[in-house]
Amino acid sequence: MKTWKDTLWAIVLTLLYITCFPINPLVLTGIIEVKSYLIFNILGWIIWVFGMVLVIAPIVMFPRRGGVPKGKSFIKTNRLVDSGIYAVIRHPQYTGGIYGIFLPTLLWYPHWLFGVLGTVGTILTYLSIREADQSLIKKFGDDYIEYKKRVPGMNFVLGIIRLFYRRTKLKNN
User: Fold this and answer.
1) What is the pLDDT along the chain (173 residues), one digit of tens a residue?
2) CA dihedral for 83, 84, 85, 91, sign (positive or negative)
3) What CA–CA distance (Å, rounded) separates 146 from 81?
4) How far is CA 9 from CA 20, 82, 118, 121, 125, in A?
5) Which CATH number fits domain 4-172: 3.90.1720, 2.40.160, 1.10.287, 1.20.120?
């Protein structure tokens, strides 16, 4: 059951996402003026595409691998998904929010305000992941606890290293 704290948390995160959205309302309305740099714009687009792929991952994977009942939302998964991107990181959608909103916005519109808001948004997203982990432990029990030990929440580099190690270990056995 959602509490007032959950609702407030969701509102704050939503406002941060809107304020830092790449098609930025603060820049488009002229409230903030920024100078653009081609290399940052290109890098921002690359990071944005990567982030959007992560945001879409659960929408595609959960109905296929998560035992989602036909006609139900992808969030109604009843089976732990630990393959594909979920073998690298546990929370691609949250991570995709950071890569798809906070990072490209700062690259496209280099302004201190977006650095501050992006930092706050990233911290709040991380804290949301911790709450999600607790909820998923309640839902999936020991299976999720073991999964959590194997797969990092957001750290791609560590996730790829661990995946490579697990696969190498399986081949050698």
Assistant:
1) 567 777 777 788 777 777 777 778 888 888 999 998 999 999 999 999 999 999 999 988 998 899 888 888 888 889 999 999 999 999 999 999 999 989 999 999 999 999 998 999 899 899 999 999 999 999 999 999 999 999 999 999 999 999 999 888 877 76
2) negative
3) 13
4) 17, 27, 16, 11, 10
5) 1.20.120
**Shortest CA distance to 109 belongs to which of 30, 33, 14?**
33
Are 117 and 50 a contacting pair, CB within 8 Å?
A: no
Q: pTM, whole model, 2 decimals?
A: 0.83
The three-state DSSP-derived secondary structure of the chain is CCCHHHHHHHHHHHHHHHHCCCCCHHHHCCCCCCCCCHHHHHHHHHHHHHHHHHHHHHHHHHHHHCCCCCCCCHHHCCCCCCCHHHHCCCCHHHHHHHHHHHHHHHHHCCCHHHHHHHHHHHHHHHHHHHHHHHHHHHHHCHHHHHHHHHCCCCCHHHHHHHHHHHHHHHHHC
What is the rounded distance in angstroms from the CA atom of residue 94 to the CA atom of residue 91?
A: 6
d(CA 171, CA 173): 6
